[in-house]
Write a structure and sequence with these properties.
Mean pLDDT: 85
Strand order of the largest sheet: 1-2
Helix content: 55-70%
Oligomer: single chain
Radius of gyration: 14 Å
Order of helices and strands: EHHHE
Strand content: 5-15%
Shape: elongated
Length: about 70
């Protein structure tokens, strides 16, 4: 059953996800430091963010209906 969110909720979540994604370069830093467990954890977080961003709409103010799967 889909979860419906308001435009304001969608925009707030979108901003949080985009802000978090600015740290995606940390994956490469941890790989370079041979900290593979941390790199793997970060990579998983960013994959989840990218999936959520896809569900929300990839652009600010996307006009699709505001719905995301639980």
């Amino acid at each position: 059953m889909p979860l419906t969110i308001s435009r304001e909720q969608r925009d707030a979540i979108y901003e949080l996800v985009v802000t978090h994604l600015t740290g995606i370069g940390d994956v490469w830093i941890e790989l370079d430091n041979h900290d593979f467990p941390t790199a793997k954890r970060l990579a998983r977080e960013f994959v989840e963010d990218l999936h959520l961003l896809n569900d929300l709409g990839l652009t600010r103010g996307d006009l699709r209906p505001c719905a995301s799967c639980p």
